[in-house]
Design brief:
Layout lengths: L14 E4 L5 H12 L5 H7 L8 E5 L5 E14 L3 E13 L8 H15 L4 E4 L13 E4 L2 E6 L15 E2 L2 H16 L10 H9 L12 E5 L3 E8 L2 E2 L2 E2 L1 E10 L2 H12 L4 E9 L5 H4 L7 E4 L3 E5 L2 H7 L6 E8 L8 E8 L2 E6 L6 E4 H7 L6 H6 L3 E3 L1 H11 L12
Parallel strand pairs: 4-5, 13-14, 17-20
Antiparallel strand pairs: 1-2, 2-3, 3-4, 5-16, 6-16, 7-14, 7-15, 8-9, 9-10, 10-13, 11-12, 17-18, 18-19, 20-21
Helix pairs in contact: 4-5
The structure holds coenzyme A.
Coenzyme A binds next to strand 4 and helix 3.
Length: 413
């Protein structure tokens, strides 16, 4: 990875370097300290299964202390039309409190995006703990998600006929069966990140929380059709059990499988509520419930996307209809993306080329990212003043970017 330039006037004495196997522990501790938690030795050891040292950056002060961290993970991002493209998952961003507002994050972000471009990754993505920060780097909220909370007393489902047998499996069987099911999900919706072997180990073995308050991670399989991963956090008051079922991942590849797995999770004894986050806004469970009005479903965190390479990113996805639109893109950080592009969709494929034609729509690269998977509508951005053009042109963009299912991003990284 290229090392950041040392010529900036602000924070110029700070040296930004890639992490090595030997400095990885210090990197994790520095990141955790800024976020206000402690990383255990055990947790750090386990994270080595998925960390990519050469994609992690550490900022060193002249006194040898670590004042900033950031990094990327190599993912495949599922795209509309059962496609996938390489994506840099930006993560572990922190700058020590006494070194903020000196341009350190900006230096690291420029390096991370340059590195993604050098690796031919058309997309970068992140989960923003402080969401106002990332628009300036060209990231837009592209994959809206919802969080759902169900009161078990009002969680009857439309369940007709036999649904098949959901059974607990051990880690080994989960490792052998869940990844292929998840890959099949990726073919049905955009926004879903691929999971490496190391990442799967994390998914099926992660400690759900402090041992006293939570039960173990439960792994349940409906063979060839889906799985659910959850844990029960126990709770008691007024002499009654009031546990909470926290669902980490629930995936059913056909309607009956989905219903069966929801039923299984909802039926957890000693619980009062079920909580699940990062679901798609068109989650079928809201229509599976006999009493959907009693479900609490609200906006969750969106996944932020960045088009590292505009023409490659737009050509990578599939398109439902045919059409042509000319967009004029502003990109302060990556000038190669700026200017006019003609996007043509035909026979399911997209082509994106330079043009001098008059633009139908002008927008920042962050807004282009926001609409690129069909999860956010161009007409909504037009009405919010975030892109300029005619209403007809925004409608045309909506039609071009429309997808069969809403994108979803089911994994925090
Ligand atoms: C957020 C954080 C990484 C920013 O690092 P930094 O080195 O201070 O950022 P920079 O100096 O490069 O500032 C970049 C820009 O972001 C702005 N910015 C920084 N933190 C911000 C915040 N919390 N909210 C809004 N804007 C912010 C700066 O004002 C600056 O704007 P400008 O380019 O218009 O001048 C750092 O404050 C931090 O570690 N915070 C705690 C952990 C955290 O929130 N991490 C983010 C995880 S998603």
């Amino acid at each position: 990875m290229r090392v950041a330039s040392e010529t900036e006037p602000m924070g110029a004495q700070i040296d930004i370097r890639p992490v090595t196997e030997a400095t990885y522990d210090a990197f994790r501790h520095a990141f955790a300290a800024t976020f206000g938690f402690a990383s255990s030795t055990d947790e750090i050891e386990r994270s080595r299964a998925w960390a990519e040292y050469d994609r992690l950056l550490m900022a060193w002060a002249p006194d040898g202390s670590i004042v900033g961290t950031s990094g990327a993970l190599s993912f495949g991002l599922s795209l509309p039309g059962a496609r996938s493209a390489a994506c840099a998952g930006i993560t572990m961003v922190s700058v020590r409190a006494d070194h903020r507002r000196r341009g350190l994050l900006t230096r690291m972000m420029v390096d991370l995006l340059d590195d993604a471009a050098a690796r031919s990754e058309p997309f970068a993505a992140l989960w923003a703990s402080e969401s106002p920060i990332y628009g300036r780097y060209g990231f837009g909220p592209a994959v809206p998600t919802i969080d759902i909370s169900l009161d078990r007393r009002h969680a009857d489902l439309h369940l007709d006929g036999p649904v098949g047998e959901v059974r607990f499996v051990d880690v080994e069987e989960a490792r052998a069966t869940f990844p292929a099911l998840h890959e099949r999900l990726r073919a049905t919706r955009g926004g879903v990140m691929s999971r490496s072997d190391g990442w799967w180990t994390r998914v099926v073995t992660e400690e759900p929380g402090p041992a006293k308050a939570t039960g173990p991670l439960r792994l349940a399989l409906l063979p060839d059709r889906g799985y659910v991963i959850y844990h029960l956090a126990s709770g008691w008051s007024d002499g009654a059990p009031r546990g909470v079922v926290h669902v980490h991942d629930l995936l059913g590849l056909d309607p009956a499988a989905l219903a069966a797995l929801w039923r299984f999770a909802i039926d957890t004894d000693l619980s009062e509520t079920l909580e699940i986050v990062r679901r798609p806004p068109d989650d079928p469970v809201l229509h599976l419930l006999r009493d959907p009005a009693r479900a609490r479903a609200g906006a969750g965190w969106p996944l932020y996307l960045r088009l590292v390479d505009v023409p490659s990113a737009l050509a990578a996805r599939g398109y439902l209809g045919d059409g042509t639109v000319v967009v004029d893109v502003a990109d302060r950080l990556r000038p190669a993306n700026a200017g006019r592009w003609r996007l043509t969709a035909s026979d399911g494929n997209g082509r994106c080329e330079r043009t001098d034609d008059a633009p139908d729509v002008s927008l920042d690269v962050a807004e282009l990212a926001a609409i690129s998977l069909g999860g956010v509508r161009a007409t909504a951005l037009l009405d919010a003043g975030r892109l300029s053009g005619s209403s007809g042109a925004a409608v045309l963009l909506d039609r071009l970017f429309a997808t069969e299912r809403a994108p979803v991003s089911d994994q925090m990284f």
